[in-house]
Amino acid sequence: MNTLDRFDKVSLGIFPTPIRRLDNLSALLRTNVYVKRDDLTGLGLGGNKVRKLEYLMADARRQGAEVVFTTGGAQSNHAMLTAAAAARLGMKAILVLKKRGVTACVGNQLLERLMGTQVVFVDTDDYADIYAEMDRIGAGLGVPYYKIPCGGSNALGCLGYVACAREIAGQGVRFDHIVCAEGSGGTLAGLALGAKLFLPGARIHGMMVDTDPFDEITPRLMREAAALLEADVTVGGADFRLRDMCGPGYAIPSEAGNAAVSLMAAREGLFLDPVYTGKAFAGLVAMAEEGAFAPSDNVLFIHTGGAGGLFAVAQA
Ligand SMILES: Cc1ncc(COP(=O)(O)O)c(C=O)c1O
To answer: pTM of the prediction?
Structure first.
């Protein structure tokens, strides 16, 4: 699928990220569990947003932007990594963050303080208001600016995970199942589209950590990304499976998520986070317990990062 290579990227990360078999958890869960270390993408503390930002920041630069805006909750990993990308590229980031979650100077807020990032809190969940606030601030800047949507989840951002699927296809193991967290949709949509193109036979599972209508969001993003790539594929809800792992709410730790964080740490010496990857891995564990995986299956967990949140959002 060489149209993928037609899109400009800036180099922000270190790829390919490693894939490793988790021997202890494979024995425990009676299947072959692998992890793809997208927590080691090489910018900031790593994480999935680096792949999306390689495309989005290239577009910002192409449009002559000197400032990038983005949004998310107070502990948004995406917002922190956007600021890190801007720092790396000599641009300025302004984060218009929802006053939701932990706003104190810990976790990603601390990292933003260290980078000298401008953070503006807004007391709303309405994205129209948030983007209007970006335009209000932007109008006073006197330089071109670029707005990146929440989570970097638009068609262009999704290309980062289409490229990830292509990367996986070249890493030597054939996967039956691929599991990731779903927060704003771009990671799952990119993987599901990428699997259609590069990983035939792999079933893609999105573990929902928020309450948005992902059954509508995911196929829409897949369609838009497929159109961008001019890919001759039909995409839809049959290309992925969803599981609700949100628990008590977005960014509120769940019992199952916390147990998964502890399990991964104790058995494999790897750290998940309570907002995304802990809940997502809890979904994988639940599927294994339900007998969804055969002993011979290869199951790939995408570790999408989230270390900043681990140090801000308390284990319940
Ligand atoms: C650590 C981490 N994992 C997973 C996700 C979910 O990815 P997406 O927003 O593409 O659904 C996010 C962001 O939302 C994240 O920060």
So the answer is: 0.97
